[in-house]
Amino acid sequence: MPIQTNNFLRRIYKWRYKNISQKTFIYILSVVVGLLAGLASVTLKNITYFIEASLEKGIIFSSNQLYFILPIVGLTLVFLYVKYVHKEKLKHAVSSILFSLSKNKGHIDVKQVYTQLIIAPLTVGFGGSVGLLGPAVATGAAISSNLGRLFHINSKTRSLLIACASAGAISSIFQSPIAAIIFAVEVFSLDLTMISMLPLLLASISGVLTSYFFMGNEVLFNFSINEPFQVKDTLFYIVLGVGTAIASIYFTKMYFGIINLFKPLKSPKYRLLVGGLAIGIMLYFIPPLYGEGFSFINDLLKGDHINALGKTPFDAYIDNIWIVIALLFGITIFKAVAMTTTLAAGGAGGIFIPTMVMGSALGNVVAKLINNSGLGFSVSESNFTLIGMAGLIAGVQHAPLTAIFLIAEITGGYALFVPLMITASISYIITKNTVDYTIYTRELAESGELLTHNKDQAVLTLMDLDTVIETNFKTVHPEMTLGEMLHDSVAKSTRNIFPVVDAHQKFLGIILLDDIREFMFDTKLYNTTKVETFTHKAPDHIYYGIDTMQIVMQKFQDSGAWNLPVVKNGKYMGFVSKSKLLTAYRRELIRFTK
Description:
Layout: H1 3-19, H2 22-58, H3 70-86, H4 93-103, H5 111-125, H6 133-150, H7 155-174, H8 177-187, H9 194-215, H10 234-262, H11 268-285, H12 294-301, H13 305-309, H14 321-344, H15 352-371, H16 381-397, H17 400-410, H18 417-434, H19 442-446, H20 455-462, E1 469-470, H21 482-490, E2 497-501, E3 507-512, H22 513-516, E4 542-543, H23 549-559, E5 563-568, E6 571-577, H24 578-593
């Protein structure tokens, strides 16, 4: 960084410390972060819409039904960018943010500020079946992280600013500021206190104002409720809740199933080719899978399922309502497949909006089944379309409150609040008891890197094993004599435990001072007795890079030991003491809760 820039920043820091309190400065930063995240969201949408409009007007693919090859073009462009510019493996947007919060103190590479602005529009604009919300949140999070680093913000505040960025991005895309705040709390496991509430609120307001400024009163879903909730429909909303729960479980399992299916394809080129062809085939038979799918949802809300389905090979049979139901159910099934295939093939995007598309199709299917069952029942198809979205969001994201308030804000009121609560809560309860973790959190949870609302677990997740490993122990070798051990190790050590290692630092066991105390003054044994005579197993081992801090704490509890050796690939690295571990835990707990 140039000297002049450093001096300029230094003057800003001094002025800020003298004139602006820390609390006020956080409020200011939350507004700035909300504005920038909102601007990033608007930019993402506009670039994507520009690409889509250019392809629709300037290329003849859409008119002769060859548009299904466009995703391959988009994925190829993303592949080239990642290989020659980004030069790093792409990670899922929200999962990478959660990892940065738990294990990287909220630090996010500055490259993420612009990378998502390039690769996400290329993926979605060329027809990839993913959403823009995840990339928008990732871009906003990267902006807030680097802004926090620029102003020397501590890791706890930096994490809050990242949550503010997500609130600003969601508020900008959906124009739903309340749901945006709740999303930050539910997904990022943020403690909702007044300290965090006000910055989130300011960021959310800033995000939605940015959207209004650049997009005007344009809304994603142009819908008003004409048929309010009726008590007689309660059973049907319960059925919808069960249906969306099953669909949520299917969505999650299908995601990991397809990701695992692509793992044997080591080369990105093969993944691109196989994935691109698979997406193209699905798009040919089910055109609504193309792109994000907001137009599909809007058509269903208008009651225009013909336009929602578009041109398909089954147009000759579209007058048959059961064919329509089958096609809509096909979208419910294949949206998850198309979305995951897009990501597995190397595309960039989010899962939130595909979840909404899948939920809208399922809700509409359930309503059509009820209305055409011949039993005399009649329900609002548009209402079920909306509430189906809430059910899928609650189940797939494990975010029932986000689902409820998002749909309530989209509809401009709370007329459907009761059925939203019924369907979302049932979907969440069933899914949560079947699938422990979401697509965002499963891999992080398995590696012990997931922050949760459980404070004890969150503190342990934030702790770093490297900070509690002690290495000032004198090692001994099994072939050493007792005299050599006493002279070279015991006499020079302040510890009462000695790790036994071989010539290659492989850990063999331990010797306690108490094990040799009665032999220390028997000089006859100094040259005849070797260290291996006193060596015994440690109560347990801590495996570096494998054991999480939760497991480490559990091993201390189960073994009753005060010191446990740390080994990596069988080699000795040091010890962790229970006293130092508990001291570090208390220090982290204070920092986490203050």
